[in-house]
Amino acid sequence: MSEKIKAAIVGSTGYGGVELYRLLASHPYVEVTSVTSSSSPGSLFSEGYPHLTDIHQEPLDEVNPELLKSKADVVFLATPAGVATKLAPQLLETGLKVIDLSGDFRLKSPALYEQWYKKQPADEAYLEQAVFGLAEVYGEQVKGASFISNPGCYVTATTLGLVPALEAGWIKPDTIIVDAKSGVSGAGRGVSLGNHYSEVNENLKAYKLNKHQHIPEIEMVLSDAAGEPVVITFSTHLTPMTRGIMATIYAKVDGSRSAADFIDLYRSYYEGRRFVRVRGEGILPSTKEVWGSNYCDIGFAFDERTGRITIVSVIDNLVKGAAGQAIQNLNLMMGWDESLGLQFVPVYP
Amino acid sequence: MSEKIKAAIVGSTGYGGVELYRLLASHPYVEVTSVTSSSSPGSLFSEGYPHLTDIHQEPLDEVNPELLKSKADVVFLATPAGVATKLAPQLLETGLKVIDLSGDFRLKSPALYEQWYKKQPADEAYLEQAVFGLAEVYGEQVKGASFISNPGCYVTATTLGLVPALEAGWIKPDTIIVDAKSGVSGAGRGVSLGNHYSEVNENLKAYKLNKHQHIPEIEMVLSDAAGEPVVITFSTHLTPMTRGIMATIYAKVDGSRSAADFIDLYRSYYEGRRFVRVRGEGILPSTKEVWGSNYCDIGFAFDERTGRITIVSVIDNLVKGAAGQAIQNLNLMMGWDESLGLQFVPVYP
Amino acid sequence: MSEKIKAAIVGSTGYGGVELYRLLASHPYVEVTSVTSSSSPGSLFSEGYPHLTDIHQEPLDEVNPELLKSKADVVFLATPAGVATKLAPQLLETGLKVIDLSGDFRLKSPALYEQWYKKQPADEAYLEQAVFGLAEVYGEQVKGASFISNPGCYVTATTLGLVPALEAGWIKPDTIIVDAKSGVSGAGRGVSLGNHYSEVNENLKAYKLNKHQHIPEIEMVLSDAAGEPVVITFSTHLTPMTRGIMATIYAKVDGSRSAADFIDLYRSYYEGRRFVRVRGEGILPSTKEVWGSNYCDIGFAFDERTGRITIVSVIDNLVKGAAGQAIQNLNLMMGWDESLGLQFVPVYP
Amino acid sequence: MSEKIKAAIVGSTGYGGVELYRLLASHPYVEVTSVTSSSSPGSLFSEGYPHLTDIHQEPLDEVNPELLKSKADVVFLATPAGVATKLAPQLLETGLKVIDLSGDFRLKSPALYEQWYKKQPADEAYLEQAVFGLAEVYGEQVKGASFISNPGCYVTATTLGLVPALEAGWIKPDTIIVDAKSGVSGAGRGVSLGNHYSEVNENLKAYKLNKHQHIPEIEMVLSDAAGEPVVITFSTHLTPMTRGIMATIYAKVDGSRSAADFIDLYRSYYEGRRFVRVRGEGILPSTKEVWGSNYCDIGFAFDERTGRITIVSVIDNLVKGAAGQAIQNLNLMMGWDESLGLQFVPVYP
């Protein structure tokens, strides 16, 4: 490798953008050449994020496709819903590669996007072009692509926990219930009473039951895996911690399968993919065991009394659920080892 | 009321005992006349619990039925599994009223107890005598009883969330899945790596899936409500907070019922019982909203796409899930208003 | 006592107001007859604070002196800085008793108020009239007063830890350094990046060093105790917890005094005042040991190597640091036992 | 660099050992060839630390100098107090380089060690040989050394905050007071009531005032910088977070110096040392801003009213306070850039 590629990060205010910066800073083949801010171009990254003092020293750039084209080869969009809709096509037109971390290009159906996001959908041609970057499932399509739509955090934890079983036909699709729990950083850096420390600390809160905008995205992947439309019950809970998502997944098993069978099936499905770790019998992963890393850990418990399998899938929402998987997708796009720059150990404790 | 009754607390080391002390200290009709310790009788309560400095000044008593009889009218047992098995009958023999907060007398079947607790069960005559103190369901049987077995914390949150629907036949019993989450105090004060701060903080952990010893107790209550044997899938999660339990309950609805119908049904079932608050449409309770109080708050979300109802039931595990409900049972036993000494506002924030 | 007095709470949005409500709800001689809201009169208290569901059922009143006069005997003002400046005199004019929890009437000097609060000071006549309600120090002046200015949270913890030593001349005033730490609720319910969960959790932050607006208030009390002007170094830190203040206080000891001497001095000073608990030798209080209660606990460590005494003083910032002490002042004003309605045990764990 | 050096970690049970493993795993010039366990050699690292699943796959080695010599070039000792006393000399005898993270070789005086650690001191010859690895102060001595005693966590935060001012004679040594606060991981992984989640959460606790075993080590460094014996007042507090240390340091300024003067002085002292970041005027670092990284961030506030400077110094106790600085010392010993393998961005949020 003679030369690094140049990357720009659009959306430096939010947690997704700053996590991209952290991870890219130690990527051996990538140089971050531009970090932008729509609200305060010209200021320093470290003004909003003092932990970056002495680390990122250049002023923030404005969000300008021509400027980005002149400075970068690939652009990561870590912007609020609705921004990439317009911006991604502009960047693609200039010949830049684009990895969008927002939800704007995840759903292939504009109508579905409008229904769940209450916003104007993107142009259908670009929706079609965008490759859904669930790396362990659609990695082959990611290779060589120039426009990636990076999956949502809940989506990643849930679908990695379900796809192998659905593809194999081992569980009954209409019995799937997903009880998901997330740390607070998943809601972003924007201030609201809902993320006020005194309201969240020592509190557990269910929210958006059956209404989370990640539901159609999950069902899109699950339907694809099952080969038939899948409709699920999906609940989300806000947990008093900063990082981490756990999806506790319930489904009726079709036929006679043990937890050990599931472990074998998943290990076989994910063979060669280092970021999915399938745990041994009787072992369930906790969110801290993947904290700060790109792993998705999966464990199983089979209940003989009810014939249900419980699948526990955990990720760090900001890494595998956002910035880490985006970099994994960059690696795949570039034909590199998917783990480049992501081969670090989870932070524990 | 001319005179207070005298109460003793056996098991002052654990969180259940110290919470009983806190609550009883402001009960208008009760005086705590003895607090015992099997490990260090003669020492001060405030040595192990400095927050009681200058509050409880008498030395801890030894655990001795004769002594307890001489000092108290009613004894609360906040002891580890297996202690009340022998001790409760001895106390009852002396004529004392007994409220046992452990699991020793909850299951009517000795075989079931042995299977789930891996301990010698209690004498069947006493198992029969013990009234299961789920106050809002079995309150009539509690009135006038002299021996109460207080329900488990997970049991209280789960069954209060399910009994009205099961009794009414509105949900299909074989589709019930309970995804329960608990704060760390539920595991008691004994030290272990599992409750080490650095291991629990910023962590979410699933444990004892389908194996929690509260399962048979829950199924006992649910079967009673349904009029047929009910078998459930039950998961427990350790959440990084001290107090609080949330049971997120899923079931298929039998017939055509809206969330509003469920709200009406539950409000009607719990009419006159101030400690169950059924929330309005679209409102889900969080654990902090009952923190430090005896409330059980219940909310509903109906998913038209799947025909499932999601029921969210929250309690403070140490109050409604242990010490508070025990006092509520004492009130019922004595023929008092069930809310005596428990009419305080949740602590928020 | 034949009849309860009627109390109104102005400022129901903030944590001070809602904590007043919680505590007053179990006061034996007080009935809360009005809770006001300047932003949404007519709405329910439980809309903003769902933990009050089914507890407070009347709509919130508007902030109107005439209305308050018609409904209440005493008004608690839990309003942001600058509101009581105008409102308290209006209420006093109608003959209402007023307890102001804000900083508007704490400093006797209008110039000092303007300097530290950057706001228009109150009318001097009313500044003069207001009795500074540090209950264990100025309790005699509180008795029979009709206008109380309730001390700040940092002020209460710090001055209760210093007054006896300063009055006795045991420490050198010009060597006092106070390193104070507070939970997040002290900053109120208003949302800001500074109290965003993901920013505060797993973080410890020093702020407003030598600049906190409580400094002149502390020095006012300390100077009064020392009989000479006292100037201190005062630091504040934001700690990742909801409630609790610890003031770690350092000073050079004048003469030869041991920790035991200090303990005796303080126990003697606070004799008969149940809310100050002076800990025994070698024992230091932690914030959780007063959590949810009106206690101020104080412990000592003497360093022979340097001749310095370290005084550790802890309170719950929302109780002894705000609402609890306000009620203690009401009790004193009314000639009641100062602990009425406040005789509860700290919540632990 | 043609070949990596081989490193062994002794003490894989504790947080220091596992953090060494995490950091060394991404060091470009180091390969971890042995991880030992005295309690369960032959087992897997991931049994005790499931986050290492699929990462470290070799069984744990026994603690055996010959074995270590055959597998490694350098040994990191992350063992409890008293173990390295004997083990380090044995390893050095075989010709291995040794970096000891415990307190066994930090104090040059055996008598002082015995007094503060209540344990048998190490052989004086080895005490003499051990270079005290406070990298930014004694880095020149570390270069080329083969035996390093790595400083304590409190020591690192405190002395980096004081040495430049003391060397310059800008503060009065006999006025130094250090109010230090630490996250819970500093106390290690051993279970005790003191680190039980329910006891630590929502709690702030002062402990070991004037008695912490790091005091003589701090005074050793400060005396060296001042050129005269320095005695300080030193307090430690347990804060409800996993990682992070803040030392809030107070001292009287000698002469007329502003905060800006201190900033200049410190920036000059630490010039070229990337791991100390001296913050600009009016900016104070928080612990989260160095979380997971090897930085020590320092800020200043000068109080004109009292003539005191307040210095706020923060580190991650497990990185700069232990494993990170140990690796920094390895880099210096080897003649490499001190930041090798440590050039990562703090984890935020």
Can you describe what's shown?
- Four copies of one chain form a homotetramer.
- Chain A has helices at residues 15-24, 45-48, 65-71, 84-93, 110-117, 124-129, 135-142, 153-168, 197-200, 215-226, 259-269, 319-334; strands at residues 5-10, 30-36, 74-77, 97-100, 131-132, 147-149, 177-182, 205-207, 233-238, 245-252, 276-278, 296-303, 308-315.
- The first copy, chain A, folds into two domains: 5-129, Rossmann fold, CATH 3.40.50; 154-317, Dihydrodipicolinate Reductase, domain 2, CATH 3.30.360.10.
- In chain A, the strands form two sheets. Chain A has a seven-stranded mixed sheet with strand order 8-9-7-10-13-12-11.
- Chain A contains twelve helices and 13 strands.
- The model of chain A has no long low-confidence stretch (mean pLDDT 97).
- The two termini of chain A are 35 Å apart.
- By secondary structure, chain A is an alpha/beta fold.
- Chains in contact: A-B, A-C, A-D, B-C, B-D, C-D.
- Chains A, B, C, D: Catalyzes the NADPH-dependent reduction of N-acetyl-5-glutamyl phosphate to yield N-acetyl-L-glutamate 5-semialdehyde.
- Chains A, B, C, D: It is an enzyme of class 1 (oxidoreductase).
- Chains A, B, C, D: It holds the Pfam family Semialdhyde_dhC_1.
- Chains A, B, C, D: InterPro entries: AGPR, AGPR_AS, AGPR_dimerisation_dom, AGPR_type-1, NAD(P)-bd_dom_sf, Semialdehyde_DH_NAD-bd.
- Chains A, B, C, D: The active site is at residue 153.
